[in-house]
Amino acid sequence: MPASDVRRTIPGVTHTDRAAALRALHSGPGFVIPNAWDAGTARILEQVGFPAIATTSAGIAWSCGLPDGGPLSVDTMFARVAEIVAAVDVPVSADLEAGYGDTASDVGATVSRAASLGIVGANIEDAADGRLFDIETATARLAAARAAAPAGSFVLNARTDAYFVGGVDDPFAETVERAHRYLDVGADCVFVPGVKDEETIRRLVDAIPAPINMVAGLTSPVIPVSTLFSLGVKRVSVGGSIARAAFSAVEHAGRELLDSGTLGFLDGAVGYAGLQERFGA
User: Which residues of the chain, if any, have pLDDT below 50?
Assistant: First the structure.
């Protein structure tokens, strides 16, 4: 179904309004931005009550039967993200990975394309193929992203993978240096995945003069969202975690049907009429 067929809008609410609403959330006590992978999951998460929604490149790839970071085309990714934007009225921030291009101008074109679809924020990573870009290259790519979507119209979430990719002598110092450089060229928020302990999170919050985004669900033991907020984190996402839970439920249901022919997987499931109501006009 074309995105225009499912678009539901609040009269008078503009792209700028949604961008301002997303930006304002970063000034509060902290918020969770869950990650959807299609229009249906986005609408459910909106109805649950989340004030903004992010996308997950991993969840979108899996829903197309492909691995994350694999052969999913950029056009397919953007088509799915456009459907998500069209399905909800809350602000949407997109996972744009490393910007889908080799050069800074490519990243700028990607962000411009995203904004043209109604997206009001995005993550841009500073690594590709398991390696960090050098800091000058990464900074230039973010500067191009900022130029393509001026401050106030788009929330630029600069992701630095110094902890996530490994192989960095001092990931704390590397993260802080990169964060300051990215903020200097206009990033609104700094996203640091891969941090596994509370004390490091606290130190990063103290050292970086901007809202910090962390991912919940990647540590063992899991650090609760409430604890992340108490450490000063302003934005909490979950990456592909909701998608993993959903696909695990499908696998569990299939195994039960195949192995025993029972339907215990339906316990607690929303009924047909309930889903019809959730997806009604």
Answer: 1-7
